[in-house]
Amino acid sequence: MSKNNEILYCQPANTEEVHELDASEVLKDNEICCPPFEECLWSSHPRVFLKLDERGQVKCPYCNTLYTLGKNK
User: Fold this and answer.
1) Which residue among 21, 32, 34, 42 is the one 20 to 30 A from 58 at the CA level?
2) What range defines the domain where residue 20 resides?
3) What is the separation, in whole angstroms, between the first and last Cα of the chain?
């Protein structure tokens, strides 16, 4: 599959109000990105990097998605 075909079939961005993070989505220094890497940028705001707070949560200032670490993470 070509790179262009992959873009056509990617998951639409920012469709969740709350996104429970998988451990693989947490980057260095407790940062995450919104929209997540598996989601398309063309249907969203620019990708931003956000730092999780002491509770393991952060809210995106663009789309208001709340990102939270799962209890078993």
Assistant:
1) 42
2) 3-69
3) 33
pTM, 2 dp: 0.74
**pLDDT tens, residue by residue, 32-71:** 999 888 777 777 889 999 999 999 999 999 999 999 998 6
How far apart, in whole angstroms, are the C-alpha atoms of residue 67 and residue 16? 10
Q: How many domains does the chain have?
A: 1
The total of other beta-carbon atoms located within 10 Å of residue 21's CB is 18
Backbone angles phi, psi at 8, to 5 degrees: -65, -25
Q: For residue 51, what pLDDT is reported? A: 97
- Indicate which CATH number applies to the domain containing 55: 2.60.260
Per-residue b or e along 1-17, where b marks 16 or more CB atoms closer than 10 Å to that residue's CB = eeeeeeeeeeeebbeee
Confidence grade of residue 1 (pLDDT, cut at 50, 70, 90): very low
